[in-house]
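My current task is to audit a protein record that another person submitted. My question to you is simply how this chain folds and whether the tokens agree. This is what I was given:
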Amino acid sequence: MRGKPPSAPHGCTEEGRVSPGTALEDDDVPGRDRRVPQNRQPRRKAYWERDNRIDWVTNSWLLRNVYTEQEPGLGGHANSDGNLRLVQLAVTAVLLVCGLGLLRMPLGTSVGSLVGRSWAREKCLQLLAGHPSPGKADPKNLLTILWPNSWRTGALVVAGYLTANGNTHICAYVLGLRATAEYGLSAQPVGVILGMSGVWTLVKWPMVGQFLARHDFQALRRVLQPRVWLQYLSCLSMAAALIVCGPYLPKGFGSGKQMLSPGWLCLMTLDSLLLMQFSFWTTLTLAQNRLPSLWPTVATNVLSLVLSLTLVRLTSLGTGGLVLGPLIAGCLFNYWFWPTYGARSVGTSLSGFLFTRQNQPSAPNAVPG
């Protein structure tokens, strides 16, 4: 006599088919290993905590931008951009409370930009109230003036995207999500270090533009030399703290994630330091209304992406290939050529710019000794 067939799992017929309209849990699927965690609530809580951490990082980044733009030396431009960032932060926070999820980011940015730019326009009209209004510009002539710099800027943005996001996509599709989390958790604080260090020179670019217009290279060097050193020292000190303490921070939070090993983290911070130097000197040449670094930058970013993909696929370096690719590509040309080129463009050498003591201007009524 045949025994009674075993009862079908919840939501299934005796033949193993799923009943219409029945949602299966993981442990209700026939043939699946039932050794799963008994309580799934901590997993949902982990997702919620992860979203909160992402929100905290996002808001901290916006606050860093506010601090950056409010640094003394930018005058009204700083107030305008600082107010724009504050509006973006406020709108993003309100949308977060309303539960809009990731949609809060583009909406907050759009609303903040609209309000901030409108405020800046009104401020400019107030400052220009005593001046005659300019004549109506011909759109064709205006487009002819703007287009050369516009397409070059677009090419740089697209090329920068390859380096900034290409490695993350390679990591996700080739190495998997765990390696992507490890790489991203290391790259994000390095990016924050670069942004905070760059404040020292960022706030002086309006003044640098005035010195370049007057060809006053001595005053330019006098202003930028201490700022460049502060930028380097800030980056090195924060990078050293990240290398020493960074790998232990995720363990302290108990998130189960980890950063790159100290060796790879050193190389990543070295590449970021060289990239910061490259960005400073190319910005200095761009302030002179010249962009000779356009195509070398595009070629270097494409080569960086190719090298990273090749090292990840053909070697056992793993995420280390994503660190070596940009470093090797940059060291071939950009990291050493443009600092010397930029120093020569302001009438000195790289060593002279960094190490020659700049004399302070004498007082107007000083009597020569």
Observations:
- The chain has 14 helices and no strands.
- The chain has a mean pLDDT of 76.
- The longest helix spans residues 139-175.
